[in-house]
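> call design_seq(struct)
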């Protein structure tokens, strides 16, 4: 039994579009902020780029990894129940 589509926003499609654009703009600002913090610094933890409990930094870093702008590697004990990662900017290959 499917759940069906989510209910429409009571403000209609205009409000939904404005909300989506606002969220995307906020995400771009966060991406830019984190990328600026990472410039020239090597491997970093979310804490090193301004992260704290409940902040957006881990989510932002994961999004940047998915887009190929940064890379990550696991740190600490392998096989732990909650892995932690360090991140660095992807350096473009030399031509």
């Amino acid at each position: 039994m499917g759940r069906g589509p989510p209910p429409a926003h009571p403000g209609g499609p205009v409000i939904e579009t404005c909300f989506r654009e606002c969220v995307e703009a906020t995400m771009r600002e966060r991406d830019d902020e984190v990328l600026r913090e990472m410039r020239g610094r090597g491997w970093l933890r979310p804490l090193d780029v301004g992260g704290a409990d409940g902040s957006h930094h881990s989510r932002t870093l994961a999004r940047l990894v998915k887009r190929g702008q940064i890379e990550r590697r696991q740190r600490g004990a392998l096989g732990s129940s909650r892995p932690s990662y360090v991140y660095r900017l992807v350096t473009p290959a030399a031509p």
